[in-house]
Amino acid sequence: MSHAHHHRPERRQAADDDGGVSQAGHNKHAGHSVEMFRTRFWVCLVLTIPALIWEPMLQDWFGYRAPEFPGAAYIPAVFGTAVFLYGGHVFLQGAARELADRLPGMMTLIALAILVAFLYSAAVTLGFPGHALWWELATLVTIMLLGHWIEMRSIFQAQGALKELAKLLPDTALRLVDGDKTEEVPVDQLEDGDLVLVRPGAGVPADGTVKSGRSSVNEAMITGESNPVDKDEGDRVIAGTVNGQGSLRVAVTGTGEETALAGIMRLVEQAQGSRSRAQALADRAAFFLTVVALGAGVITFFAWLFFGATLDFTITRTVTVLVIACPHALGLAVPLVIAISTTMGAQSGLLVRDRRGLEEARNLQAVVFDKTGTLTRGEHRVVETVTDGIAENEALRLAAAVERDSEHPIAQALLKSAEESELKLPQAQGFGSLPGHGVEAEIEGRRLKVGGPALLKKLDIVAPSGLANAAARFGERGQAAIYLVEGKTVLAAFAVADAVRPESREAVERLHAEGIEVALLTGDSQAVADAVARELGIDTVFAQVLPEDKAAKIEELQAGGKRVAMVGDGVNDAPALVTADIGIAIGAGTDVAVEAGDVVLVRSDPRDVSRIVALSRASYRKMLQNLWWAAGYNIVAIPLAAGVLAWAGIILAPAVGAILMSASTVIVAINAQLLRGAKL
Ligand code: AMP
Predict the structure, then answer these.
(1) What CATH class is the domain 376-500?
(2) By alpha-carbon position, which residue is closest to atom 10 of ligand 1?
(3) pLDDT at 595 over 90
């Protein structure tokens, strides 16, 4: 029982985590919840109203008289104090925490502002000459609470995507017991080896292998693949994906922590928490702004006193400066963009493991692709067929039929190609292998042989010139030539090679369109590498590179002053992935155990490399815009708050300062959300 409890901690954690931006590098809201700010805001709003109604200054402005009774003069003081104690408490507590951490920031500024306003007003109410600032204090605190409430709600929404991932997993599964009976069990009670029934339209409860049934499954949420993927016996299914029309019986191979979904969520969380350069910059800017704000406050205070302003005017200006300069939005500018961009990436098959890699991607100048398994499938296929007197498909059908019982890699290539062309293979009789030469068998009454050049030599025959020329061409490209022979006649020549992925050409084109150079890195021969490079339009080729020298090639490019990304399958490419400015692991499928690489391409689609660049550029633009909205506006706002334009009658009340400051936060939050519309 206790075992079952350990199964889905992410889910619980994601649901409990209020705001969670603490993981994204700032923890000023630790322990504060959206509800807390909401409640305090409403209560303080109500408490503020009497403070406004009985405020003599407002009565003068609006020309009304509030009901008079003994003690009415103290109403603003009493309600102002209540707002300060109940609503301001949050900020005072936050400031205490910041000071304990020796990291004075926004909370410190707000606390200082309201404390100054409170102490001064209290002194005035108790007889000190001047003009109390009760209504200013009350509105300031109330607006600050409103700002925090809205802000925390936006953070909550930005982080919602992680929860959306968690929600993909159904709560219960239908477990099959003795044959055909089903029982409904909570997902965290599933164990490896259980057989579960996945009904049409239901979510897949665990990773597993299809035992029977046939359906198509929507895997978009995990792999980003938009087309439903056909599944039948033997295919793997992923927890969190959604079944289509058919029913599937699935043998469970991974539950809870071990599922691909859990792995993805771990990566997303890790990435959101990984300290990035942009975040470090924003934190420094926030600290700098705090110092500037404190300095500006002190200057404002002494400058107005020096020019002979009244103490209440001076204090009001100082409080406004402190409030408006709060680096509030600055704390959000970067984390919000990070939260949204990593989740966006995850939803379209780009798993960001290290933010730094993603940040670098916008400056990429060269992308190096490992050939095998990246631009190619890493499996041999028939890549070209040339025939003499028979149809291409017919030649492949016969050759594959001959190969059916052979274990040779060439046989596998022919069989897979025939299967992919949906050819139905006839039965073979009298199969025999000719070691070192090829195979033979009788198909539909015809005595056929399949083999390489050595077979022709042994049979002492030559291919017709058309086939011989084709074979020579295959050889130049480093591809194996395999012949289909009947008696003394060569019927067809097949080129067998590591097949290029259909997406690779477009992947290279897209990178070229962005002005990025593309290189190929492989241990294969120069001829093979050149042939692939020519086919795909790749600029530079590094052939016959030993695995241990791959990283050195990357360094070579970097020494030329280029920012280089390496795309590889994450196994023997690990050193090169780490050396590159951005390591991109491909071919991982849903096996998220990939440890090297800053970004993992879940779909193994090389075209996704250009989407990383697009995501990087879009999030960088958003961060810059946000830093401006969060901090840049202070260039205008601080002097205005200090009363530089007081001679022209333009002065800001503290509450107006708070509105501007909150507005900047809200703009930053909305602007970050707009990133979701970016085209990847
Ligand atoms: P091996 O030494 O078994 O790799 O075979 C040497 C050569 O014989 C290969 O490069 C092929 O040209 C040919 N060969 C061997 N087995 C087969 C087969 N099953 N199908 C076609 N060609 C074969």
Answers:
(1) alpha beta
(2) 452
(3) no
Ligand 1 mutation target, pool 403, 407, 410, most atoms within 8 A of CB: 410
Work out which ligand 1 atom sits closest to the CA atom of 450.
21
How far is residue 269's CA from residue 353's CA, in Å, rounded to a whole number? Answer: 9
Checking if the pLDDT of 254 tops 80, the result is yes
370 is catalytic: yes
Query: Which residue is associated with the tokens 């001679």?
Result: 647
Distance 404 CA to ligand 1 centre (A): 14
Collect all residues with Cβ–Cβ distance below 8 Å to 294 and sequence separation of at least 6.
Answer: 104, 109, 112, 322
Atom 22, ligand 1: residue with shortest CA distance:
451
- Ligand 1 geometric centre to CA of 261 (Å): 43
Whole-model pTM: value is: 0.70
The answer to whether 587 touches 374, Cβ cutoff 8 Å, is yes
Pocket residues: Cβ below 6 A from ligand 1 = 403, 406, 408, 410-411, 436-439, 450-452, 454, 480, 482
User: In this structure, are residues 365 and 564 in contact, taking their beta carbons and an 8 Å threshold?
Assistant: yes
Its sign, for the CA torsion 70, 71, 72, 73, is positive
pLDDT at 489: 95
SS3 call for 198: strand
Tell me the pLDDT tens digit for each residue of 318-367: 988 887 887 667 767 877 787 788 888 887 888 887 778 888 899 999 99
Beta strand segments in 501-568, E: 517-521, 540-542, 564-568
Angle between helices 260-273 and 160-167 (to 10 degrees): 170
What are 516-534's pLDDT values in tens digits?
Answer: 999 999 888 899 899 999 9
Atom of ligand 1 nearest to the CA of 481: 12
Question: Which residue lies with its CA nearest to atom 2 of ligand 1?
Answer: 436
- Which atom of ligand 1 lies nearest, measured to the CA of 414? 20
Q: What's the CATH code, domain 350-372+503-607?
A: 3.40.50.1000
pLDDT for 571: 59
Q: How many helices (H) and strands (E) does the chain have?
A: 26, 22
Q: How far is the CA of 569 from the centre of ligand 1 (A)?
A: 28
Which residue's C-alpha comes closest to atom 16 of ligand 1?
438
Condensed to tens digits (0 to 9), the pLDDT of residues 52-77 reads 999 888 888 889 998 989 999 999 99
> Of the ranges 15-29, 174-188, 390-404, which one carries the lowest mean pLDDT score?
15-29
Query: Could you name the CATH architecture of 172-258?
Result: Distorted Sandwich (2.70)
Q: Which residue in the list 18, 207, 283, 370 is annotated as catalytic? A: 370
For residue 125, the model assigns a pLDDT of 93
**Whose Cα sits closest to atom 18 in ligand 1?**
438
Nearest-angstrom CA–CA distance, 296 and 177:
73
Residue-range domain boundaries for the chain: 6-163+268-342+624-674, 172-258, 350-372+503-607, 376-500
Distance 462 CA to ligand 1 centre (A): 18
- Compute, in angstroms, the gap from residue 482 CA to the centroid of ligand 1: 8
**38-42, 268-272, 374-378: segment of lowest average pLDDT:** 268-272
